[in-house]
């Protein structure tokens, strides 16, 4: 399957990341891998766009990164969802659903 | 792992990220790449394949622009939560500031000396700027001063005599005001005049200005309390006895009484009601000297002295300066052209009084100074330049201190560079430190400056202190002090910072073994700075010495009249309600009584105070009437009683003194001085010739010629003077002159008693001795010279301390060299000579340069010097000697300590 149009990807990227962090804190490599895995390889973020995106979300106060050292491992930066991030995620989800629904009704595509 | 970091760093080049942030990003990204790499390898890829894939992944998108967007986003997009940082540079700046504060705290000695040095320099600048700001830059607190222009007249269109400005008569002023279209408002105000004020307490002398009712409104002022004049109060002569009191007069004369508005006071024995208090800080339209109180022009008859009493109806009596607000779009030149047309019309209509009059129109900012403007501007510029130099010396001292410290901080700087601090970053850090020092010095300096100004202002002559401009600390003074502090920090910081940050890390580390070579170049820069300091100090000292000698000469100027045994009593019988016969009786009786006081040899009355001569322009010389048309003849005019010349010790060249016989019924007579006689009757006998004064109705016959004295200032060019007999020229305010046999202060009390016995209602607060008159005339110059001296010594002190500091440092740096020399057989005297020579070479080169500069400057200043040549050997030699002695001591102390170097210890330590 052809890779999803870049613009679509950009529009949904924030939602994807916030969603992945909802359940538990994760580090960047983990996030990148999960996106690719769960989208069945359809969505892939390059390292040079994934991290700037994370930093952007962090600056906005939606996620928070912290260096964590575990035994026998390099220290890694884990990101967790902040309260504000949780609120934003709820709003974005709702909007996204409405958007996808609208697109579906107009374009005549079945709702997923 | 290492390669990843390297690859990422390459892609981040030029990102301007904070170093800590950059390190963090690199670590995080490289971990990611490493994970990717490991995963690929685990999937069976070779090292090369995995490496290529990871790098391709890294380069799939451009990292830097993406990152910059994320890092900047906060600045543009007000952060919702938690994002406190507001931009990289502020963060850097704060970090630098904290670091700088820590560094300065760590070396309190250095910080204290540098701060104090800078504070002296900045303080001197702040003090002088405050004074200039008060007197020159913001002289009058009125609205939109640039729209205001002052109107006076000058006699004649002739260029040669453009100088003398005259007041307008009230009627001419009305003519201008009714006709002009250039000004939206035109006000008239008199000069400040001394009058007698009486309330419940003792009568006192204050200064009044007669003004038109629109005075305050034209200037755009609001009363501090109460109200200003209504137009109706300035419509009919003598009807509205109301007055506006100045703010500082209210404070000083009435203790700021809150119930002042509505109170009645007597001015020249006429009751006036105070209707308002003027705005704070406003003292009339002259920058330097102002009135205590204002009354309307229609009260002129009640306020003015006898000769001017008809000012409202007599077109020949000068009274007002007009000040107008230009209508929008009208230029000064247009207004001047219009006023001259009006003047021509007035001349045509009233040729006998207005003949030859032309209009002089000047911006108020210029008119506010009168004839002292030149001197004031010159003095301001000179003092500003001098304190600027003092500050330069202070800067170069601190720069030298910083250079010494830079040597000690090489390690620290090398470490910072090794850790990756860029040169720009390092430079910024060092400059932040010096600017912080500058600001510390600025705060202390501002306090110094403020205290200095207060002190200086407290030296004002007490008689006039409250009529002189108040010192104002405007916001511009704060601004000035701040800008000077920051600039100072940059100036003294830039060279040491550039030098410290120039060298590469490796060079710095190598340097540990190359101390001598490096400190040589450091010392040569320091020496240049020092020689500059010596040169500037010499220039300042020479200038101060020249002016000091000049003012000493001024004190020895013979004004042409007695000063040591002279006492003056200002009396205004007319202002106490005396009519003319009673006043004339008073003059006669007081003179008789005082002459009987033991210790008094002569007594007389005169209208002029010494060196405050009144001038009149437009004298007619009989037989030379044509001359009046082409030349405005002006002379000093003094009305005097019998024995005046004997009292002041002015001798006769020809003719006779006034006598009892020169009375109102005899022919009108006058005495002139020899300058006048020589100018208008050259080669002839002036006795018997006749002249007419501008306001006189008759020709006066000259009966005597006396020696010329100084009339308006000490050491002035000879001026013409006409003396009139009191008995033919009534005046109700005169000054009593008494010549004493011994020190006049001993007799003053006896004379005062005698006058009080005569009439206790007469105000008698203004009593002076002749020497005090001279003192006051030289007051401004004395303060100026005092300042020059203080700044000269300050420069000398700073330069000596700087010299000592650098010599001591150089000795400590060269201990090893000195040790070697001593080990090789150099004696103590050789060593101290060698060190001393090194210092004195710098001093002599500084003196050579400074001497040249002082020579040039002295010549530029020569026209302001009295009786001293700009090459005055005593001034130049004295200044150079003082500098040499101070410099020698500053070099000798370190030289002596060099001789105490123990070769063994020095060599072992090295």
Keywords for this structure?
heterodimer, A: 112 residues, alpha+beta, Arc Repressor Mutant, subunit A, 3-stranded antiparallel sheet, 3 strands, globular, B: 910 residues, 5 domains, 8-stranded mixed sheet, 6-stranded antiparallel sheet, 30 helices, 14% strand, elongated
What class would the helix/strand composition of chain B place it in?
Answer: alpha+beta
Between the first and last Cα atoms of chain B, what is the distance in angstroms?
A: 45 Å
Oligomer: heterodimer
Quick one: CATH superfamily of chain A?
Answer: Winged helix-like DNA-binding domain superfamily/Winged helix DNA-binding domain
Show the largest interface: A-B, 23 and 30 residues
Order of the strands making up the biggest sheet of chain A: 1-3-2
**Major β-sheet annotation of chain A:** 3 strands, antiparallel
Spans of chain A of 5+ residues with little confidence (pLDDT < 50)?
none
Sheet having the most strands of chain B: 8 strands, mixed
Helices and strands of chain A, in order, run as HEHHEEH
Overall geometric form of chain B: elongated
> Stretches of chain B where pLDDT falls below 50 for ≥5 residues?
73-85, 158-162, 511-518
Quickly count the domains of chain A. 1
Describe, in plain words, how this protein is organized in 3D.
The complex is a heterodimer of chains A (112) and B (910). Helices cover 60% and strands 12% of the residues of chain A. Chain A is of the alpha+beta class and 112 residues long. Chain A has a single domain, classed as Arc Repressor Mutant, subunit A (Orthogonal Bundle). In chain A, strands 1-3-2 form a 3-stranded antiparallel sheet. In chain A, a hairpin with a 7-residue loop joins strand 2 and strand 3 (76-81). In chain A, helix 1 crosses helix 4 (83-107). The longest helix of chain A has 25 residues, at 83-107. Chain A starts with 5 loop residues before the first helix and ends in a 5-residue tail after the last helix. By secondary structure, chain B is α+β, with helices and mostly antiparallel strands. Chain B folds into 5 domains: 2-83; 87-139 and 371-513, no CATH class; 145-368, no CATH class; 530-553 and 775-910, no CATH class; 566-774, no CATH class. The longest helix of chain B has 42 residues, at 515-556. Chain B is elongated. Chain B starts with a helix and ends with a helix. Residues 73-85, 158-162 and 511-518 of chain B have low confidence and may be disordered. Classes of the chains: A alpha+beta (112), B alpha+beta (910). Chains A and B meet through helix 2 and helix 3 of A and helix 2 and helix 4 of B.
